[in-house]
C-alpha cells in the first residue's frame, strides 16, 4: 500500500462558483395582522424609549455650572 504522488483534481471547486441550483425555496407565508401589529408595537416602544432617554438625559448633559470666583467664599467673613 504505497501512496501515489498523483495530483488530486479540484476542478469541482472551480465549478462550484458557476453552479446554480434549480431548487426553489418554498413561498413565504403571509404574516397575519396580529404579527404585523405586534412588530410595529415593538418598534414604536423601542423608538419611544430612545426618545425618552434623550429627553430625560439631555438636561444632565448641559453645562450649567456657576462661574468660578476669584476668591474663596470662606475668606469673605474676614
Radius of gyration using CA atoms only: 35 Å
Count of β-strands: 0
How many alpha or pi helices? Answer: 2
Q: Overall mean pLDDT score?
A: 77
- Approximate shape: elongated
Q: Low-confidence segments, ≥5 residues, pLDDT <50?
A: none
Class by alpha and beta content: mainly alpha
SSE arrangement, N to C: HH
Approximate strand percentage: under 5%
Largest sheet data: none
Question: Gap between N and C termini, in Å?
Answer: 106 Å
Helix content: 40-55%
What does this structure look like?
The chain is built from two helices and no strands. The model has no long low-confidence stretch (mean pLDDT 77). The chain has 78 residues and is mainly α.
What's a quick, concise take on this entry?
The chain has about 80 residues and is mainly α.
Write the layout of secondary structure elements.
Layout: H1 11-16, H2 33-61
Characteristic key phrases:
single chain, 45% helix, 2 helices, 78 residues, elongated
